[in-house]
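U., I forgot to send this yesterday:
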Amino acid sequence: ICFCAGLGTHAQGVAHVAVARLPWAQPSKPPVKMPNGAELLGAPLLEAEAQGRRCSVARAGDRPRRVQRVAKFLAAVLVGFACLAPYDVGGFGAWRTPSRAKELLAASPVGLAAGGGLVHTLLILVFTIAIIVGAAHALQVAVVKAVEVAIETFDRDYLGVDVNIGEISFNIFVGRLFVSNVKVDNPEGYSSDGLLTADTFILDLNMVRTILSLGREIEVTELKVVGVAANLEFNGYLWGKSNAMTILENLKSSTTRPKGDIQPVYDFWHSQNNEHTFHCEPAWPGEERKDVQFFAYTQQAPQTEPVYDFWNHYYQEHIFRIGESQSMLEKKGGTAHFYAFKEQVPGTEPVFEYWHPGNKEHTLHLEPAWPMEERGEIQFYAFRADPSGQTRGLVNKATLKPVYDFWHSSGQQHTFHHLPAWGGETEKTLQFYAYDKEVDGTEAVWDFWHAETGKKRFHIGEAAEGEVKRSPLFYVFTEQVADTEPVYEFYHEGNQEYNLHFGEAWEGEEKREVKFYAYREDPADRLKTKVFLKKVAIDEIAAQSSTKLAGMKVRVDDMFYDDFSTEFSATDARSVVKALMGELFGKVNLKLG
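Result:
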């Protein structure tokens, strides 16, 4: 481009010559001889204008003048191309033959001025335009395909449901993406026809930022959604867990959930209920994930049966099995948690139900029995290890996960741990990143109970005076390593609580010593694509809601934001979708009717 610009002055003259040689500008009379002996092209036009009349040649002469600016620009490009091509600029090594060099020289400024390069120039022009148009079309196709692949990957892996789309189109010249006829299916256990539908998603993209960042930063300057209809369904008779909440829980756990149809089934511990539950991620509210017990299918495979949870009113616990309720004291859950084999197939082992007489609870796992347990009947058959090999590495490998602060309203204190929130807590802000398993150089941060103050405390090491050591929560570095920053302990006298975070004290806090070192952001995120969502406009949202017994009147407030990513600290696809859905269903107003 710089080279062509440098030849601009010469190219202007070349453009006049090239335009004059076009068929419609050819003189019908011999050229006029100038005093210096030169021949002036287009003499009939000058003669016609001198005589004050507009003949057909004069009208033809208007057309070159109308395209004069375009011709100058194209000529500048062509001059640079023709002058550089013989020297193999851009890899055109086949053009360096003597005969081809002569042909190109004829298309150069000298050859063009001499009248021998018009055909070659026009061929180069057509060739250049074809490359530009072809490249633009290829990029549009690539963007559309990338969006399709992203949706296909995102829906099941992150949302846990299918997302159906009608058509995707992209206008590369204005950076506008259209996604039409979008439908988000319901999770299992809900009967209504989908969670969300939308006629059109319109996304205006900042193409300059995307190109300059080599695709690592995608800025959506404006998102507008037309024709939104939400269908909120609760799985209880008058209330219960909603389809929207189920999908949001899937999003929360999606960063570490292994991919594939076969997933690990964990045991989870609920400290308030004093019971173990057995299911795939995510953890239910108030639960803490423990160990992998076996592997099972998340989608029904041949010879497998769904495994449900049953709430036993007598034992006040969840029991997991295939089939139906075995007494009036059991209530069957509405969701199949995984699929297992009723009869043994190669590679599977029996999963037993166990009874702990001291804890008065049933557990579900492979042999051997846990301490003090009594083995009961076989419930189904499952894999001890993932036969596909897709999940094994992820299950056993330590994962760097975000640590949030949570506010416990009744306890009047902050807690610090991975998702999900414990019972009675509200998720607040991401504070730092830490490992969920031990790696070299790390130690566990435990939660401790301080009976005198009735507060939890969080730190490395052993219990201090008055503390009771409970569970390891996450793993951090005791010495600073690359990319980590110091995390301080802060004391809030008003709440009588100890908090952990970077930087300076929050309101009412007193800053104390460094407790450990952690990551401010996941180092792997530097290689991931960042998504920055600016303006959001979603209005006139139609909505309906229902339970098993009654419908509800629903009103959803309009959504308008000027800088969505900044307001919700969402800079990747998962967090943006999570924040959008959280805001959408957070603006639902329900009324029985």
